[in-house]
Fold:
Amino acid sequence: MRSQKLALDIVTLAGKSGINSICKITVCLLLLLTLPVSVVTESRERAIAKRCCVGVASPKGGAQIVQTQTEDEQRQQKLELQELLRLSQLGVEQYNKKLYQEALETFQKALAIVRKIKQGSAEAATLNIIGHTYLNLGQHSNALKYLQQALTVSKQIGEKVSEGKNLNDIGLVYDRLKQYKKALDFYQQALNIRKQNGDKAGEATTLNNISSSYYDLAQYPKALEYMQQALAIRKQIGDQKLERTILYNAGSLYDKLRQYRKALEFYQQALAINRQIEDQAAEGTTLNDIGSVYMSLAQYPKVLELYQQALKIRQQIGDKAGEGSTLGNIGNAYFSLGEYPKALECYQQAREIYKELGEKAEEGIALGNIGSVYQVLGESSKALEFLQKGLVLLEQIDEKKEKGTVINNIGVVYRKLGEYPKALELLQQALTIRQQVSDKLGEVPTLNGIGSVYYSLGQYSKALDFYQQALGICKQVGDRAGEGTTLSNIASVYDSLGQYLKALKLYKQALDIHREIGNKIEEGNTLDSMAGTANIFELKLEALKLFQLALDIRKQTGDRLGEATTLNNIGFVYNSSEEYAKALDFFQQARQKYRQISNKPGEGATLHNIGSVYDSWGQYPKALDFYQQALVINKKLGSKDEEAASLSNIGYVYLRTDKSAKAIENLSAAVDALELLRPGLKDADKISIIDTQINVYEVLQQAYITQNQYEKALETSERGRARAFVELLAEKQKTQIQLKPTINLLKQIAKEQNVTFVEYSIIDERFKIEGKNNGLSHNSIFGL
Structure:
């Protein structure tokens, strides 16, 4: 009885862990221990063999008698079986605790006994679980080796159920190796056998796995087709655990496809079963994933509530890996809410857990997240430090998909620093990786990122090209969230091109999508953009109504970063309508919000806006004070274009107050900062980016004109848009030129290369200071 109880305990334990191979071993051993060993007829022997999953060959000549074992042999066999039971129980316990190396040693000892007593079915089951243990250790070749042995034994003894399982599990190994076509081949073989045997549970499991492989191959319609087949079988099975698994995986698939309402429907059903069967580990996982869906919907109070429930469960059951995952997700929620110190704390805790567990992929992701926080806080050097550390870890284990994400994020940092060639290089690398691993959903933000770089360069046609590529993928895979974001990006290009009606139509399409899927953050962003366009049309009341809608959404969701952005935008409306007191009030509110969340880029931009109000009032000392504060922040951020903006504003104030020398000093520094953005750019990109910056050059020329320094003014014109043509000329003629051209140098180049060089300036009436004409526009013509 003691041996029988021991075996039943193992069956119960194995059932909870879902290790079917061990269940099979213990059933066989239980029967062997409870059946008497004696002289039996052939029919009796075959009955026992059948129950114990043992294949017995009939000798020639009809019915035979099995020889009686001696008492010593019986005793020895029983001891071996009891030892096997003990090893099986120990192995299961070690496996459940994720002590895979220890479990492996235990199962190997069990295998030796199984082979000694020649139990074919138990041998196949033991080989299978050893294969799974190697799989969990990341030793894929060893996993395949043992699963192939298990398959061979299953075929030899004619066990079709076992054969189907081993084919399925071999497919699982190839799936982990990202060899999805090979995985599908084995899954299909398993599916055929399981259908023939009427193994509905096995059929549903394999259908689920096939769905997963098609998803990874970006064949989403096929993924959905097989998932629907698995769902159709689930209620026929009568196995709550398997039904729960299928429901959970259906939720996961719809989540990945960003069909959030369907994802929630299936996750909630899985959660109900987990609670019914008291599976805390699965309950924690499902709560975590439901939280992630609400995260995608930007319902942050609900997100944090679910993640905290998941974290509590995972800490209670000692699931360290799960704890790290949930901490990372809580960090994501705080990040989206603009609570960066809290986000940083969660990411750091997650990193420590993964480091302790030796989980390099997850640690690499956590490091990348830490880097993203520092990037938003404006600490670019720290951001790059942590992102690079994360990348090193991911490269060590060749985790391509996550590597693509981190490289993408590094590219975003360089874009915000204004280092556009470096940003483009990295984003193109990320795009190549994502295309290699068929990460269609990952391609969308990278294509949008490349488009954003070209947008910053003033290359609107190129920006549109990449945005359109992203939009095409979104429509192809059904990524509604990505479609909405990309439509907004396309609209912003048309906004910049002055095609406002087209922009508004696209913003409206994006808004409808964000409302359809319940993405409040993006809804607020799009309302902001629409309001900005309305303000351009001088539709002040309509713009304010849209901004107020956005502001209400920001407050409902706790989106403090978005709230600060909208407050700033409302300030712009009042500023443009010369209601400066109201503008100042909203800018001050925005600044306070940015300071609360330690968002330095936002604070710097808002200081500019406050300075512009005092500038408009003619309170120049106050204007200079705020512009100087902005300059300190922008220098610390390392963003050359923002630094140039601060310097040019300061220079323009000095110019308006007739302090030309000071104006020249700051405007020259602004031009120097802008020119640091150009190295590495292609010729067309150099021309287009200068088009976006030309005003600074013009104001500097005006400053020189006020001091009658006409040649300096002309030299400045060559540092403007014409500079790209000068560089192109020098490149074609293989001539080295200085960074700051002089009139004499330009004449020398023209003479040496036998070209005609004409420089002229047209006086512009835009800038008049104390009766002096300070306007100057220019063109340069080259005859080649």
Remarks:
- The beta strands are 756-762, 768-769, 772-773, 777-783.
- Residues 71-96 form the longest helix (26 residues).
